[in-house]
Amino acid sequence: MAETIVRMESVSKSYWRDQLEIPVLQDINLEIPEGEFLALMGPSGSGKSTLLNLMAGIDRPSTGSVKVAGAELANLGDSDLARWRSDSIGFIFQFYNLMPVLNAFENVELPLLLTKLSSSERRQQVETALSIVGLSDRMKHYPNQLSGGQEQRVAIARAVASDPTLILADEPTGDLDKQSAEDVLELLSRLNKEFGKTIIMVTHDPRAAESANLTHHLDKGELVTK
Amino acid sequence: MKLLKLLFRNSFRHPLRTVLTILGLAIAIMSFSVIRTAINAWYVGAEASSPNRLVTRNAVSLIFDMPLAYKERIANADGVTGISLAQWFGGIYVEPSNFFAQFAVEHDSYFDLYPEFLVPEDQMAAFMAERNAVLVGQKLADRFGWSVGDNVRLTGTIYPGDWDFVIRGIYTGKFETTDENTWFSRWDYLDERMRVETPGRAGRVGTYIIQIDDPSRAAEISQAVDAMFENSIAETLTETEEAFNLSFVAMGSQIVLGLQIVSAMVIGVVLLVLGNTMAMTARERVSEYAVMKSLGFQSYHLVGLIAGESMLIAIMGGALGLLISVPINGVLGVALSMMFPVVKMDALTFIMSAVISGGVGLIAAIFPTLKAVRTPIVEGLRIVD
């Protein structure tokens, strides 16, 4: 049986606007096994992205425990958390968020600069990542020379380049046309099936969710279906 | 790829903005160095002073003179090894705008006290032999195209009438700071005519230049000299040559102060120019910094990127400014050569300009860096370009 890679216990998250408390997540209990491809669905404002951010360690819960890839995130300081993210998490954003001044190769290489890999080892990993996403011929292209789908594939290559334990994707097809979205989803499925990557994808698109093995629904900050 | 490459590319992401900022910085640093050079020029005269020379003048004001009889008494004072005298002549050459310093000096003693004025032996001999002979500095001669043997007429203002002189020598300075813009005529020529035309003004001296053997006794000797003439009709004030020259600088102290204020304002402008650029930069890149943090980059990486970019722009601007200031200071030096012996950017100005450039780069990066570091990742990611 696969090990649990994400365990959330009694997790709640609230934001404060002036004196007003805005609850976003309430009493979330969740276990995700390693190797899973999970879709998190729900309407806007349901807390999907917040849940993903908590798993990624880029936000902290108001209460509860978040344990990801063996680390209790509450016990990590900001620096340790940054190092942990670098080692364990690959993040894919809705709007790709590539560095416009870096070409595809350099964008994918960016997270590898935080590792102890040599220049040639980095090159090898970047080339492998770009070949997985089918962009070996676009290494020297800058983001403004790529289509949206290609940009997102570069972002996926960036997310997998450092071989993270967990890939988190926040609406990865939200800004793409139908064909590009299908390509990206197919790529994520392949990463899950062929490379055994655990993927948690936030989406509000039921067709995107169909690519996943499992779907959870969030509504008004609560996990309503498993 | 190294982060340095990202830093460099970020710096020129908006080429026009960066180039304009660099140019703004360059002009400001150039202005700063030119102003500093102009300020320094005021003090060169004082820096060129000899510690072995004292100057005695009328205690009331330089406008008032002293009797020639003081010379023997001062010469006999303890510690005095030499003495000469000078009188401001104040004549006009062709027109008043042709201003230059003119002194009538005791010809056979003055240049013994000023070995920094280098005069060829034959020219000095000619100066000694003729009462209306004149020695002029090389720069002054160049300014008016004079050469040895030229007859020059000055119209007196303090000593009325036309005065005919003949240039018998052209001196050069032993040191870079030696003034080469001065006219030295003979005091006995002036005095001789005064005895004939206005006897009441004969035998009068503007300043006595005293040579001493021990600079550490300057204060003591000065007091002793002044004590000789206490309660006389022309009490004296004796001070070191440096203090004497600085008193002239003090006359222009408001101008110097004004220049110093302007140079400080220039630095403020530089800071605003770069600060504005960096603030715009940081605001535009909030989401990129959030992405970098989400990838695992730490605060010190962002500090390095932002401060490095700011420093890079500032140093490029500073370097360009210093580069431009070399020819500008050269032009300034030519333009002001008749007023100041040396107009040249010194090492301190160079170092100050470089330090200011770097410092401005660092200071301008503080606010954008704090913003980038303090903005939570989640908040930064919400911002869509």
Task: Write a brief caption for the model.
With 226 residues, chain A is of the alpha/beta class. Chain A is built from seven helices and ten strands. In chain B, strands 1, 3, 4, 5, 6, 7, 8, 9, 10, 12 and 13 form an eleven-stranded mixed beta sheet that branches.
Structural features, described:
The complex is a heterodimer of chains A (226) and B (385). Chain A is α/β, with parallel strands linked by helices. Chain A contains 7 helices and 10 strands. Chain A has a single domain, classed as Rossmann fold (3-Layer(aba) Sandwich). Chain A is 34% helix and 29% strand. A 6-stranded mixed sheet of chain A has the order 6-7-8-3-9-10, sandwiched between helices. In chain A, helix 4 packs across helix 5 and helix 5 packs parallel to helix 6. By secondary structure, chain B is an alpha+beta fold. Chain B has 2 domains: 173 residues, no CATH class; 175 residues, no CATH class. Chain B is 56% helix and 18% strand. Chain B has 14 helices and 13 strands. In chain B, the strands form 2 sheets. In chain B, strands 1, 3, 4, 5, 6, 7, 8, 9, 10, 12 and 13 form an 11-stranded mixed sheet that branches. A two-stranded antiparallel ribbon of chain B has the order 2-11. The chains are: A alpha/beta (226), B alpha+beta (385). Chains A and B meet through helix 2 and helix 3 of A and helix 1, helix 11 and helix 14 of B.
